[in-house]
Automatic annotation (TrEMBL):
Protein name from the UniProt record: C2H2-type domain-containing protein
Region (Disordered), start-end ranges: 51-73, 97-118, 132-181, 200-236
Domain UBX: 284-316
Keyword Disulfide bond recorded: no
InterPro entries: Dimeric_a/b-barrel, UBA-like_sf, Ubiquitin-like_domsf, UBX_dom, YCII, Znf_C2H2_type
Subcellular location: Cytoplasm
Domain C2H2-type: 76-105
Entry GO CC: cytoplasm; nucleus
One protein family per Pfam: YCII
Organism from which the protein derives: Chaetomium thermophilum (strain DSM 1495 / CBS 144.50 / IMI 039719) (Thermochaetoides thermophila)
Alphabetic keyword roster: Coiled coil, Cytoplasm, Metal-binding, Zinc, Zinc-finger
Superkingdom, natural source: Eukaryota
Comp. bias (Low complexity): 61-73, 227-236
SMART domains: UBX
Length: 545
């Protein structure tokens, strides 16, 4: 191998590593060209791997040409195919390629290639390499074309699926709009039928009135012939009852609501659902046009019977504010009962129950059949006071700070290694009289927690600390057993006064102010012995004549 042969192969465009291996295997330029031609399909890694493997055993025999003594072997001959090789490397490569193993030495020297043969051989090799590259490029182009076709096909399928979904959505939207249009047309037809029925009814009444003024009998209608009013009403009822649902647009004090009910739903059920959502009972419904009012006596009708299908607009009318139901002096005037008077236990006004029996409370000034509408605003902690009354600000401060009562009760009640849990604190309406009063009282509302009447309760002195001498001021219960004095911790007593009102009477305004300054409203509570927890009480201040 010479440097000029290696440079020549590099100039021809062969890989330097391959050219070096080819010159080593071929023993010269001609052998290198033969080796490169035979191994043009192999990569450099494959050639190097074959180099690392041990080659097949070659059996070199004594050929006839080399039988003479003293003659030197100049080539190798494959006895299986007759091909001659210049050196041992070429023979080894041929054996590895063809798995021929029978070789013999020969004294015949392989003639070297002439310059013209070398050039022709190089041109042939270049042509083959060029053709191979062209075939490889054509193969890659064909593969890229197939991949592009697959990609376009997948893209087209995805686009078709998307268009199909959009088309179905458009069809559904068109059907919905068509249904709404049909419902609007049906509603207009029902309105026209109702207007026609009202017109015929007014005409009939006018005819009767005219006949009475003229002193004659009105025109009678044949018994078997249906009146125009009845036919129009029947047409209206048949059209209204043809749908299974009713779409109502409800105008409430909190805004407009759009709801869909079954046509068999009663107006009472609709009123209950609206009351649960807006927080105010519904007294009556009314339609916008034509004007029709549904009182509570009509709440037994279904939406179909009321002609509110398939769609209608209803205006809801709720109760008036509680302050408008009774004079201001009636709200808490009955709570000034003395020791011997009986008054029903105050219940949680935020949980009204339809099943509860009607209440009848005897006030000093009047009798209110049911005080629950008056107490229904208790959850909002409203305070009705005179603007110029001296206790207005302390009262507002008192109820505004009621939420901290539980923490203060836990701090002031000696409960070792126990973190109490508290029931919700009730709130009541407090109203002061416009005039100054010589005597003041605290209203202590006991929470009506579940199972309160079956629990063992103790009233301890520290729970009422700061309220003054009880025997002088007086502590008693309205609507239940009277508590004349508070038992000591050494002599506990059991009481069950859940849901009632304790009245703690003070003797002067200064004493009330002192109690307010001590935050004693947060120290009032009932100790539940069985469950080891504090049930706080709400204190509300009021005046009494």
């Amino acid at each position: 191998m010479t440097t000029s042969d290696l440079d020549l192969l590099k100039e021809m465009g062969f890989d330097p590593a391959k050219a070096e291996i080819a010159l080593k295997k071929g023993g010269g330029l001609q052998g290198a060209l033969n080796w490169l031609e035979e191994n043009q399909d192999k990569s450099l890694e494959e050639i190097q791997a074959e180099e690392a493997k041990p080659g097949p055993a070659i059996t070199v025999g004594q050929g006839a040409e080399s039988s003479g003594a003293g003659q030197q072997a100049r080539s190798l001959v494959c006895n299986e195919c007759g091909k001659r090789f210049r050196n041992h490397d070429q023979a080894t490569f041929h054996a590895a390629k063809t798995e021929h193993t029978d070789f013999s030495e020969s004294t015949e020297e392989i003639a070297p290639l002439t310059e013209e043969e070398k050039k022709a051989r190089l041109e042939e090799l270049r042509r083959k390499i060029k053709e191979k590259k062209a075939a490889q490029a054509a193969k890659e182009a064909e593969e890229a074309k197939r991949n592009e076709q697959i990609r376009l096909k997948n893209t087209k399928e995805a686009q078709d699926l998307k268009e199909e979904l959009q088309r179905k959505e458009q069809i559904r939207e068109a059907q919905r709009k068509k249904q709404e249009k049909l419902e609007d047309l049906e509603a207009k037809r029902r309105i026209k039928a109702r207007i026609e029925a009202d017109r015929l009814e007014r005409k009939r009444r006018d005819e009767e009135a005219r006949a009475l003024r003229e002193g004659r009998l009105p025109n009678t209608v044949q018994p078997n012939a249906p009146s125009p009013t009845a036919s129009a009403a029947a047409a209206f009822a048949s059209s209204g009852s043809s749908t299974a649902t009713a779409r109502l647009r409800l105008q409430t004090k909190n805004g407009n609501l759009v709801k869909t009910y079954p046509s068999e739903t009663t107006l009472f059920e609709v009123a209950q659902s609206i009351e649960a959502e807006v927080g105010a009972p519904v007294e009556k419904f009314s339609t916008t046009f034509p004007r029709k009012v549904f009182e509570k006596v009509d709440f037994g009708q279904t939406l179909a019977e009321a002609g509110l299908t398939p769609s209608a607009v209803l205006v809801t009318l709720s109760l008036k504010p509680p302050s408008a139901l009774a004079p201001a002096s009636l709200i808490l005037s009955g709570l000034g009962a003395t020791r011997n008077e009986r008054s029903p236990a105050l219940r949680d006004p935020s949980i009204p129950s339809i099943a509860d029996p009607p209440l009848s409370v005897h006030y000093r000034s009047a009798i209110v059949p049911d005080p629950r509408p008056i107490l229904s605003v208790a959850s909002h902690a409203l305070i009705y006071t005179s603007k110029h009354h001296p206790m207005t600000r302390p009262l507002r401060t008192l109820l505004a700070r009621t939420n901290s009562a539980c923490t203060t009760v836990a701090r002031n009640c000696s409960v070792p290694s126990f973190k109490p849990r508290f029931a919700p604190i009730h709130r009541t309406i407090v109203r002061t009289m416009a005039t100054d009063a010589p005597k003041f009282e605290w209203l202590v509302v006991v929470p009506d927690f579940p199972g309160a009447h079956e629990k063992r309760l103790e009233v301890r002195p520290q729970h009422f600390a700061g309220l003054g001498p009880f025997k002088e001021s007086g502590v008693y219960q309205m609507g239940g057993a009277v508590l004349n004095d508070v038992p000591t911790s050494d002599d506990p007593k059991d009481f069950s006064f859940a849901g009632s009102t304790l009245v703690v009477q003070a003797t002067s305004r200064e004493e009330i102010k002192e109690i307010l300054r001590k935050d004693v409203y947060a120290q009032v509570g009932v100790w539940d012995v069985e469950n080891a927890q504090i049930w706080p009480l709400l204190c509300a201040f009021r005046t009494q004549k």
